[in-house]
Amino acid sequence: MSDIFELMLTLDLRDELSEDELAELRWHLGLGPKPEILRIVTEFPFWDEDDDGELVVEDHPQPLLGRHGEAFKMDGALISVLLRRERTWFGAWALTSRQEIHPDQFDLTGKLLSWLATKAGDCHRRFDGSVDLGWTRFYESRQAEPLVVRDGVVIWPS
């Protein structure tokens, strides 16, 4: 049994992203090099044991939405794309990402998704202030669940 979920982002971003934010977002999407300073998601804790068997926490930055190619558990491909829009009434940037994600990655990926929600175009905002980013679904299911950020927190599947 596997706990893999499909994470599908389909959103438009406003034209207020700085060059540093764009560079870090591109890195997270697997579309560019790692910036020297990470400002969106700043810590990537990795727990390991040292030679004495003591638990050590190290920082291992890695792109959160950067897998490209054949999906491991789901049909189809994993991809991330960020395009500058010519027509900007929805937003200046179009972002689409399809990834496989394990619940162990929800917290860390949630930090990036919460930040993306603050940059999302108005068409993604609901009347209650929550932001639609796309959907998730368990890899064995055909039923998708909305991927929503409410009050800065991602509402993950239970």
Structure description:
With 158 residues, this protein is an alpha+beta fold. Helices cover 15% and strands 35% of the residues. It contains two helices and nine strands; from the N terminus they run E-H-E-E-E-E-E-H-E-E-E. It has helices at residues 19-28, 106-119, and strands at 5-13, 45-49, 55-59, 69-70, 77-84, 93-101, 131-138, 145-150, 153-155. The strands form two sheets. It has a seven-stranded antiparallel beta sheet with strand order 4-5-6-1-7-8-9, covered by helices on one side. A two-stranded antiparallel ribbon has the order 2-3. A hairpin with a 2-residue loop joins strand 8 and strand 9 (153-155). The longest helix is centred in the C-terminal third of the chain and has 14 residues, at 106-119. It is globular and about 60 Å long. 25% of the residues are buried. The model has no long low-confidence stretch (mean pLDDT 93).
Summarize this structure briefly.
The chain is α+β, with helices and mostly antiparallel strands. The chain is built from two helices and nine strands; from the N terminus they run βαβββββαβββ.
Core attributes:
single chain; 158 residues; alpha+beta; 7-stranded antiparallel sheet; two-stranded antiparallel sheet; 2 helices; 9 strands
